[in-house]
Amino acid sequence: MITLIHKTRRWLPQLRESLRRKDAQTKRDRQLTLKIANALEMALKPNEAESLSFYVREGSVTVFGTTCQPANRAFVLELVRRVPGVREVNDYIRTVAYEEVF
């Protein structure tokens, strides 16, 4: 599982470590994870990804966390859907009031 943390890119070392480990994910899933992480990093400003995580298994991507704006939620889901190799996206993102996130 990869976690994007608000206003920081602390998740990149976690991603790199995950890619080095021999865990339950296949090589294809690990490559897809990297593609998704790069796409999100390039497309989102730090304040747009309040608290998001995603997990890839056999091309199925589960995205969960919280966001303050429905538009950010829709943007993230569409961005993930467009990454080559993604077969399906499972949406577990909650839209909450700004005060609940911070």
Walkthrough of the structure:
The chain has 102 residues and is an alpha+beta fold. Helices cover 43% and strands 26% of the residues. The chain contains four helices and four strands, in the order βααββαβα. The chain has helices at residues 11-20, 27-43, 70-82, 98-101, and strands spanning 2-5, 51-57, 60-67, 88-95. The chain has a four-stranded mixed beta sheet with strand order 1-2-3-4. Strand 2 and strand 3 form a beta hairpin. It is globular and about 40 Å long. The relative contact order is 0.20.
Write a compact overview of the structure shown.
The protein has 102 residues and is of the alpha+beta class.
List keywords for this structure.
102 residues; single chain; 43% helix; alpha+beta; 26% strand; four-stranded mixed beta sheet; globular
Shape: globular
Mean pLDDT, as a whole number? 78
Helix content range of the residues, please?
40-55%
- The fraction of residues assigned to DSSP E strands is 25-35%
